[in-house]
Write a structure and sequence with these properties.
The chain has a three-stranded antiparallel β-sheet, with helices on one face. Helix 1 (12-22) packs across helix 3 (74-89). It is of the alpha+beta class. The two termini are 14 Å apart. Helix content is 31%, strand content 29%.
């Protein structure tokens, strides 16, 4: 089992640039599935075009923490993570292993 290497990680921003270049009519929809006290669950759906079926999905869970990004931006972090996972499921994570 290999370890995750941050140097091989493509940011969500980098993957979004590739996605929009390949799919200028594409769209991404996110939905808050659950907010239970301090926990968020977000689902992202990726579409190749305006009238196409869902191409890939991604789920993410984040918990509000006392420090770090999740102290102030847990929901935003969760949404970005869900989009990143959906992009990875669509094949936009080519540099290395996927972050879990």
């Amino acid at each position: 089992m290999g370890f995750f290497n941050l140097e091989e990680y493509e940011t969500v921003e980098e993957r979004l640039i590739k996605f929009w270049k390949d799919n200028p009519e594409g769209r991404i929809i996110t939905a808050l599935l659950d907010f239970s006290g301090s926990r968020f669950i977000v689902r992202a759906e990726i579409f190749r075009g305006s009238d196409t079926p869902v191409w890939a999905t991604g789920l993410a869970e984040e918990t509000i923490q006392g420090r770090g990004v999740n102290a102030t931006s847990a929901l935003e972090n969760c949404e970005t993570s869900a989009i990143g996972r959906a992009l990875a499921n669509a094949g936009y994570a080519t540099k290395g292993k996927r972050a879990s």
